[in-house]
Amino acid sequence: xxxxxxxxxxxxxxxxxxxxxxxxxxxxxxxxxxxxxxxxxxxxxxxxxxxxxxxxxxxxxxxxxxxxxxxxxxxxxxxxxxxxxxxxxxxxxxxxxxxxxxxxxxxxxxxxxxxxxxxxxxxxxxxxxxxxxxxxxxxxxxxxxxxxxxxxxxxxxxxxxxxxxxxxxxxxxxxxxxxxxxxxxxxxxxxxxxxxxxxxxxxxxxxxxxxxxxxxxxxxxxxxxxxxxxxxxxxxxxxxxxxxxxxxxxxxxxxxxxxxxxxxxxxxxxxxxxxxxxxxxxxxxxxxxxxxxxxxxxxxxxxxxxxxxxxxxxxxxxxxxxxxxxxxxxxxxxxxxxxxxxxxxxxxxxxxxxxxxxxxxxxxxxxxxxxxxxxxx
Length: 377
What we know:
Layout: E1 30-32, E2 38-43, E3 46-51, H1 75-82, H2 98-115, H3 119-140, H4 149-159, E4 176-177, H5 185-207, H6 214-224, E5 228-229, E6 248-249, E7 252-253, H7 260-272, H8 280-294, H9 301-315, H10 331-344, H11 352-374
Parallel strand pairs: 4-5
Antiparallel strand pairs: 1-2, 2-3, 6-7
Helix pairs in contact: 1-2, 2-11, 3-4, 3-5, 5-6, 5-9, 7-8, 8-9, 8-11, 10-11
């Protein structure tokens, strides 16, 4: 899939055909002209031209069009990552023994990594994608208008078997409301399907060890919000929030009067530098907070942040998509409070609740995977 320059609008590429899965382009198939900054990509004997106005401080645009070498994280590597110290946990939030889970996760995550290469393991990894989307929508406060969660899950599993999955840019069919408050089931299914498509995209980057960039975030966001319409019926456009566009959620007012693209780039670079030394739960929680707090887009930031949380864990070797939920009946309230603490507090305790939710969610999901894979026929 092609990531587009940030100065380009999404409608300019609505008719471009994209490959069904991300792939590497051979080195001989593209070149950048230093004079006019025209990126030439030869695909299926058709020359596609994209004009890019590159800022002097930006990296070369080719960086986010090429795939990194696959990273085959071994079970031993996963175990080692989960053995890194995690000091900020908030045990009193739950009845669960979170400290016990922290100690159990190295072996549990390593075991699940081994199982992910089996047929049952691969099946579970696939089934977790629609389960992730449903869990993320629960945290967002959006659910189906007329069908059960179980029925939605079964429909999404079938949609994933379609030749049209994952949905590509410009291929959406049914408009859906940008806040997720859909009035009919067809729009709900469409929203969920583009959500799964965005999840598949970002997890592919994670599995290949590709660091996130603002360009990748924009590309993923454009898939996530594809087909969304505003309250006035206009098509939603994925773009970085401009300098003078204010935004808020609940009582929290997000930073304004800043270069949002530059700010998120700096945050991503700083976050990437901590990958090799951070506990996976801490690394994923911090990335989620960065996306939520910077709020780089006009809508869809929460959904994108939870995709990034799943990306960070898979990048660390977790074999499947995990939503930041503690599986409790008050999970949404817990999530909101944890995010508020992370955004509003200063000092070493601000991540306590987020870390706690991450540990509980990972432990429950990986235990589920273990039981799924070891179940007798």
